[in-house]
Amino acid sequence: MSQSPQAQTEQTELASLVLHSKTALQQGEALCLRASSSSNASAQDAFDLLALNARVRWISDAVIEQLKLAASVAKTIEERRTKLEKQTQDWDTVRAQWTTSLDTLLESLGSQVVPPDFHDSMSDSSIFGSQFSEPEMDHSNHTSEPGHSPTLTIRHTNGNGRHKSKKDKDLNDRTRWKTLRDFVDERAIEDAIETIEAERVALDDVLASTADYPSTLHDTLSTIRDALPRACQSIRVDEVLTKQEDLSATMAEQLESLAEHYDKMEGALQEHEAGEVFGEDDLQDMQRDTNELPAIVSELDESCAAIERRRDELLSAKHEAEHSLEILCTTLDNLDELGDIMGEMLEQQQRAENGLRIYISIYSSLKSCLIGLRHIKAPS
After folding, report:
1. What is the pLDDT of residue 130?
2. In a 3-state reduction of DSSP, which class is residue 186?
3. CB 212 within 8 A of CB 55
4. CB 53 within 8 A of CB 323
5. How far apart are CA 199 and CA 189, in angstroms?
6. Single pTM value for the model
7. Using N-to-C axis directions, what is the helix angle for 293-374 and 5-110, rounded to 10°?
């Protein structure tokens, strides 16, 4: 039986409403599926982020402790170097004073003459050894008795007249007398001074090699600190997941309403095909409900986008944590390398301090001899 034109129009309208409802339902299902996939992935991302944050915090604490230790060692090296420089300057000042004193002392010894009768015994008692040649030593050994003091030699009046005559001549010619300086081994003094100078130059070389240690360590530590990752922008993982769950629940309700509307439209079409006649008000109600479907789909799309944005936040935080972890691992490697370098610096600093001790030791030996020279006086 053929349908009336009005019935055909109603059927066409109902079919259109079913088609729109089905399309809206399919779009809603696709959006919900996408949102569910993103939400499930977010759970894994959240787990990874929590694990990464824990490692970043642990390594950050280790790096901070390493930096504190490195800064402490750097401060120790700087303090030891400053102390060494001060000691070196002090000893340079003392050395300059004693050098001047030595020059004055040698000049004083050079002005004090010694009678020829004292030559033999003075060569044996010289603090720096005798400067006589071997012939002079042989001659002196024949003109005095071994073991006798200079005073006993002067008082000894025995001997032939020829020796006494020569001795009298020498005693009368004071220009031929030796001075106390002639009995000082100036070559030994020069050797000692040259040794001191050589050690001082060597000490300067070591000090020069450590000169940039404080600034180098300070710059290196500053560079490492500046390279440390900034604190990650806090993100509450639980809040992200909770928000996603709330959005997912809302989307599920909206999808359910789309499904109900589709079932309603499909049922109405089947009823119309079975001979049911709908009034104008019924058709308008169905049309109004169908016209609201795009708004519902739009809300689903917004909710899906919000869930994906939440996941993007997790991914961003995860990538930032991974980057921070990579930087921190590199920083630990750099600190290990810096530790080796600082060990070498400490060894070099120790060499410098040993050099100063050698310098002081050699100078102290010379100073002891100079003190002995100060007590030498010409016999009257």
Report:
1. 46
2. helix
3. no
4. no
5. 15
6. 0.62
7. 0
